[in-house]
Amino acid sequence: MDFTVIQGDIATQSADVLVNAAGTSLEMGSGVAGALRRGANGPINDDAVSNGPIDLGDVVVTDAYDLDAEYVVHAAAMPHYGDGRASDESIRTAVENTIAKAEELECDSIVVPVLGTGAAGYPFEEGAHTVCEALSNAESATLTDIRVIAYSRDEYETLKEIAEIIKAR
Fold first, then answer.
1. Confidence at residue 27, expressed as pLDDT on a 0 to 100 scale
2. Beta partners for residue 110, in sequence order
3. What is the model's pTM?
4. Which end of the chain is more exposed for a tag (fewer CB within 10 A), N or C?
5. Do residues 21 and 118 lie in contact, with contact meaning Cβ atoms separated by under 8 Å?
6. What is the rounded distance in angstroms from the CA atom of residue 50 to the CA atom of residue 75?
7. Residues 6+ apart with CB under 8 A from 74
């Protein structure tokens, strides 16, 4: 599946689906989750938590409230209990389940952050590789606008380089 790399705040993006880098409790704390919670300006955290906890790699859908999206898919790439660390497998599974859920919802566009690399402690470069590879290997009948987002300029440059390598394969 083809995707583009962008830089910015996920909470300001316009798409059918914005993806939350969630933990298994679905509690929306800091980082991507915090930005989406603040941007939604509604009970999105309560909605998410009421569906949890979920298993590592699973996803839950909530309304996007005031975000410029139809849905927020909360992708549990990290455990919120125990060591709280993401892994290659948890990130890959969360991306795969996110794409499947977007397909089920018949969405055209999605914005995906590099899951598992903030509070979850997974190295950004490795997480970016896993997310880009999972998206590149995915197939979709409905998604035509797939964006992977990085917040900082440095992370964007790293993400862009990794995406170019994966796309060249």
1. 94
2. 17, 146
3. 0.96
4. C
5. yes
6. 15
7. 20, 22, 26, 48, 51, 59, 60, 61, 62
Closest CA to 70 of 26, 14, 115, 5: 14
Q: Which whole-number Å values give the CA distances from 165 to 4, 69, 122, 133, in the listed order?
A: 13, 30, 20, 10
Give the span between the Cα atoms of 29 and 134, in whole angstroms.
Answer: 25
CA distance 146 to 28: 23
Least confident of 97-106, 114-123, 126-135: 114-123
Residue 83, both tokens: 């060591």
30 has pLDDT over 70: yes
* CB-based contact 76:26 (threshold 8 Å): yes
Amino acid at 154: D
Domains and CATH numbers, the chain: 4-168 (3.40.220.10)
